[in-house]
Amino acid sequence: MAAIKYRFLPIVVLLITSINVFAYDRITGESFASRSEVIAQSGMVATSQPLASQVALDVLKSGGNAIDAAIAANAMLGLVEPTGCGIGGDLFAIVWDAETKKLYGLNASGRSPQSLNMDYFTAQGISKIPKFGALPLSVPGAVDGWFMLQERFGSMGMDELLAPAIEYARTGFPVSELIAYYLEVNQERIGHYPGFSETFTINGKTPKKGQVFKNPNLASTYEKIASGGRDAFYKGDIARTIGAFVKSQGGFLSYQDMLAHYSEWVEPVSTNYRGYDVWELPPNGQGIAALQILNILELYDLESMGRHSAEFVHTFVEAKKLAFEDRAKYYADPTFNDIPISELISKEYAKKRQALISPNHAAKRVDAGLNDGDTIYLTVADKFGNMVSLIQSNYRGMGSGMIPSDLGFVLQNRGEMFALEKGHFNQYAPGKRPFHTIIPAFVTKNNTPLMSFGVMGGGTQPQMHAQIIINMIDFGMNLQEAGDAPRILHSGSSSPEGDIMTDGGYVSLESGFSVNTRRELMKKGHELQDVVGAFGGYQAILYDAQEKVYYGASESRKDGQAAGY
After folding, report:
1. Minimal CA–CA distance to 82: which of 202, 211, 213?
2. Residues that are catalytic
3. Which of 14, 86, 542, 552 has its CA 20 to 30 A from that of 247?
4. What is the pLDDT of residues 44-61, one digit of tens each?
5. pTM over 0.85
6. Would you list which residues are annotated within the binding site for L-glutamate?
7. Do 541 and 461 share a structural domain?
8. What's the 3-state SS for 374-420?
9. How many domains does the chain have?
């Protein structure tokens, strides 16, 4: 296939002219594996950017625990990967606490402005919340999430944890390849907003790969948080600056909204897949979609189908469609809705849904089953046995494009994901958390920790969570191979924003799937489209209790690194 330049669009739809499958020249493991797993005894880190991994590893080596290291890594990622995360966004985490031998879930997502209501959208003739600008803003919850984690589980002060990111922000760091690409993409779509050029460019151009970049404004913001705590962000000058800036841009997010923010500890929920307990967080996130997919697929002998067969791909896609129809109808802020989580993730319900899957025909439309309504992921494990699964995002890469004066970060546009349909579970309301795509995951076996993992990338995430589990349990792959394996992505399902699938959507396959598999899928009625950059980014840590060692894996499609000691 001729070389193609992909510019200014993060996801590019391609016409398939030919398909080449390239095997890596490795003497062991699957042909598609990009590298071996990282194995270490005392601690393990996996993030989407090597400098962030090294910061987390330094924290572990200096005596900090996994929670400390995760916070330090997340702060660093907000600097070195602003195209996926930052303190203008939200955070979710699952923590295995070695002392209590229990999983804890944290929902640190923010709420919509109290002064904005449905009447405004109706009066303005707006039927869908815009992607960028001041209207899709919600309160950024990440900083409160840091302090919730640090106060309950941390062992180091926030000043120590933010110090590495502050130093890098002032002295600079060389920009990595994918980040340079996505900065250029974002300049095209949000570069016209105030503050972008001053914050994210060098002489008006986004930094190129290897170019040293500084963000002194973010360093100053981090210093205020380090010395003043969460109140510096939600009650002090930072909150006032955000409120004043948003007002100047015609938005509604206010100082009072910042002042009222709080995060919540939540109970993770699980399903047992072939003897392994897979854990997700409940809505307003989409994690239970992965559990619904796994429950349906557990009813099939996937191993006998073969990982790259049309039969497996078809079955997976049809199960995904069913789960995502429920996602579109029911997944929303549980404070405003009675969400039937236990029914949705039950084995009995999965059997009813499985009966709707035809082995030979792709469904064009499916209905919800109950009838009563860009991102970073990181994981850290320490010598004490603690493990953290953490995901954090601005949404749409660099969020809304709203960059509060001299603060060095972008505010998220997560409010875009509200529906403007009256009566919808995810209907916009003041002080409500929008539907969320970012989801951390965890696996336990016999009530002991086994695996902390996540895959970034919007609606990709539940699909890839399920595929990682299936790759390891049904197809016997190791931790790195499970992430490197060619992925299946279905797009076009009904959505929590009110979109309805009527044409069956379309299937995208990475290059490891054969022409014959693609042909057979088309015979079953699937539309195939090739895309670039849409298959997510994976990090994972697995604990071998018998040998007492950690295995780490990092996404070969990103700039990331797994590292241990």
Report:
1. 213
2. 375
3. 86
4. 999 999 999 999 999 999
5. yes
6. 458
7. yes
8. CEEEEEEECCCCCEEEEEEECCCCCCCCCCCCCCCCCCCCHHHHCEC
9. 2
